[in-house]
Design a protein that fits this description.
Length: 112
């Protein structure tokens, strides 16, 4: 039996200042069977460039850029529409995740 997969929805807009650190914290998770659905919503800062760099570095990142700005709700819906995993969670482009967050959450979900 394979390990459950986790989808992390990361809708971003104007997150240049903190996005690299947020992505680093996601990619450093102790549980590695996950995919990041990274949806960029037509930012006019360097957010798209950062997204492209990280997507090129790690195959677990599925990057898409919206053709037009969908707004916060639309961009969140976009990552939900892309998701195809056993479990799903949202992350934000400015938050740092503890290294064991996915493992701890999965353990709770699988045991309850």
């Amino acid at each position: 039996m394979s390990k459950p997969s986790i989808g992390i929805g990361l809708p971003v807009y104007q997150n240049e200042k903190f996005l690299a650190a947020a992505l680093d914290s996601i990619l450093a998770q102790s549980y590695s069977n996950f995919v990041v659905y990274l949806s960029e919503d037509q930012s006019d800062d360097n957010t798209a460039k950062i997204c492209q760099q990280y997507a090129a570095m790690d195959p677990r990142i599925e990057y898409s850029q919206n053709e037009k700005n969908l707004g916060e709700i639309g961009n969140h819906q976009r990552v939900l529409d892309l998701a195809d995993t056993d479990y799903f969670m949202f992350a934000r482009g400015h938050e740092l995740l503890p290294a064991n967050l996915l493992a701890d959450c999965l353990e709770i979900l699988e045991n309850d």
